[in-house]
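Need tokens for this chain, all 300 residues.
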Amino acid sequence: MAYIDDPETQRANLSFIKASMREPLLTRDHEFDLARKWREGGDERALHELVRAYTRLVVATAARFRNYGLPMGDLVQEGNVGLMQAASRFEPDREVRFSTYAAWWIRSAMQDYILRNWSIVRTGTTAAQKSLFFNLRRLRARIESLSQGGTGPGNGLTKEGREWIAGELQVDVTEVEAMEMRLSASDQSLNSPVADGSDDDWQDFLADQRPSPEDVVIGMRDSNTRSQWLAEALGELSPRERTIIQERRLREEGATLEQLGRELGVSKERVRQLEHRALLKLRQSMLKRVEGFGDLLADA
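Here are the structure tokens for all 300 residues:
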């Protein structure tokens, strides 16, 4: 359902649209001349003339996306941002009309705005999801219209219809199914009642996935025990081995073999050998203190 602006906003939008349509069209040579003046000389007057001439393209593109339930004025503003981005990146030497180049930037800016604001939950994050979001309704309508004449690939979004859409957009059928469900649903508050007159909210039925107080206490105790085992095992290492383990394994940014080699007066290869030997000693020492290797691992 399209968003309906208040009367004042509608008048402002209409005024902007009329002003955009009054801007004269640019010839190819004049367009390239303006682009060069801006790109090479930073001429802001040339930039403004170039951008104003193509605000009508922004308005036309916004009209295509007006049924996504977002304000027309916001779509136009996002399109203007895309138009400015196109102007800043346009290279006239490529001999491509600015309108052709700017159309992609304008459409991309509006689509990104729609994906960010159509729902509280981000709808499309991958290229496949974005393609489905902006094409699923069109292809579904095409299926329905063809099905009425008896020549369509399927009656609505049947299994055959989903497979046909997946083939058209080069995506997985599972992604078509997921987007179909997403577009048919609407955002709901967890604070809303489960039924009219009910005192229970939807959030009351959400399971708490956090560990219980008992699990927290047990985890803290086990962590302290493992820390004590590690300290005792480190105490069984030689001073040089202990230094290597502490500097290499027990710091957020461990020292390199070369750094420790300079500090200890040995080669990098010797440091690597000492580290390997120390780790074996630690493993053997820790395993003596537990019944099984799993006792050394924290619960996920």
